[in-house]
Design a protein that fits this description.
2 domains; Rossmann fold; 7-stranded parallel sheet; binds glyoxylic acid; alpha/beta; 36% helix; 341 residues; 5-stranded parallel sheet
């Protein structure tokens, strides 16, 4: 009998889907919206594996109600939607998809930096709105901030933060960063300077967030931090919405503590269309599309399936989030299939 897997959405890679059906008994969810908790629990009751998205909450109760579960493979780099501690305690392997989406997210971060500093979305709207573009060209029309010579502050110099910093060099920016881990190797290679968080917020012209969402980073940027930023500075977030206190950000944008913000991620997703952020002119808002390229989403699918099959084949998966699990339930105890090359 094949191991049973609950796959919460069809993935955009034929290779990935074919592999799943080849080795596993697949319970594939057809709907686009995330499953409810009840639905998750009902489907996981008899499953050996789960392949989920970042929108699918896998909390302690859900994990506890899946007695046969051996692996949770998420089709995302972020795993804040999974209770990893609970999974580890129960000997469940958790895997993610790092690396393959780094460049796509860094590109989107730069698209947002350029869009907010040069008012691209506002300008596009103006061209389409009768009466807005009244004069062909005017010395003070639609002015934005020049990036050359300015300072980029990267919060979190991991894979994506580093890729964002690399691109900043091409725009002639100085780069400062804050991270809980000092990256002296990268300081030399990229010419980036480490500064404490408060200093970064005070000095940067563009602050870009690249930390995972954890207990420590939840609301890392709130009123106090926003008040430290320059009134001419911009805040960009392509990490997780809850790293910023949204209410404080709305206040900062309304009262001009900072000049603008560009956001791909929100505390509540989808962001309600009538949310106070949507009423502001000095923001660019996009719907969590950091990794949304054809290339990256296909690679993520392959990686998520390879991770999942590796565990069930008793092999260490390429992207294991909780290596401590290896001691709790060794790989030979989760082995159910033989992979053919
Ligand atoms: C996207 O936000 C991801 O975590 O993959």
């Amino acid at each position: 009998m094949k191991p049973k897997v609950y796959v919460t959405r069809k993935l955009p890679s034929k290779r990935a889907m074919d592999l799943l059906f080849k080795y596993l008994d697949v319970d594939l969810r057809e709907e686009e919206v995330p499953p409810s908790k009840e639905e998750m629990i009902a489907h996981l009751e008899d499953k050996d594996a789960l392949l989920c998205l970042l929108t699918d909450r896998v909390d302690a109760e859900t994990i506890r109600s899946a007695p046969k579960l051996k692996v949770i493979s998420t089709y995302s780099v972020g795993f804040d939607h999974i209770d990893v501690e609970e999974a580890t305690a129960r000997g469940i392997y958790v895997t993610n998809t790092p690396g393959v989406l780094t460049e796509a997210v860094a590109d989107l971060t730069w698209a947002l930096i350029l869009a907010i500093t040069r008012r691209i979305v506002e300008a596009d709207r103006c061209v389409r709105t009768p009466g807005c573009w009244r004069i062909g060209w005017a010395p003070d029309f639609m002015l934005g901030m020049e990036l050359n010579g300015k300072t980029l502050g990267v919060i979190g110099l991991g894979r994506i933060g580093t890729a964002v910093a690399r691109r900043a060099k091409g725009f002639g920016m100085s780069i400062i960063y804050y991270d809980v881990i000092r990256r002296e190797d990268l300081e030399k290679e990229l010419g980036v300077k480490y500064v404490p968080l408060k200093e970064l917020l005070k000095e940067a012209d563009v602050v870009s967030i690249h930390v995972p969402l954890t207990k420590e980073t939840y609301h890392m940027i709130k009123e106090e931090e926003l008040r430290l930023m320059k009134s001419t500075a911009y805040l960009v977030n392509t990490a997780r919405g809850a790293v910023i206190d949204t209410n404080a950000l709305v206040k900062a944008l309304k009262e001009g503590w900072i000049r603008g913000a560009a956001l791909d991620v929100f505390e509540q997703e989808p962001l309600p269309a009538d949310h106070p952020l949507t009423k502001l002119k000095n923001v660019v808002l996009v719907p969590h599309i950091g990794s949304a390229t054809y290339e990256t989403r296909a690679k993520m699918a392959d990686m998520a399936v390879d991770n999942l099959l590796s565990v069930l084949a008793g092999k260490r998966p390429p992207n294991l989030v909780n290596p401590e699990v290896l001691k709790i339930r060794p790989l030979e105890k989760v082995k159910m299939i033989e992979l053919k090359e």
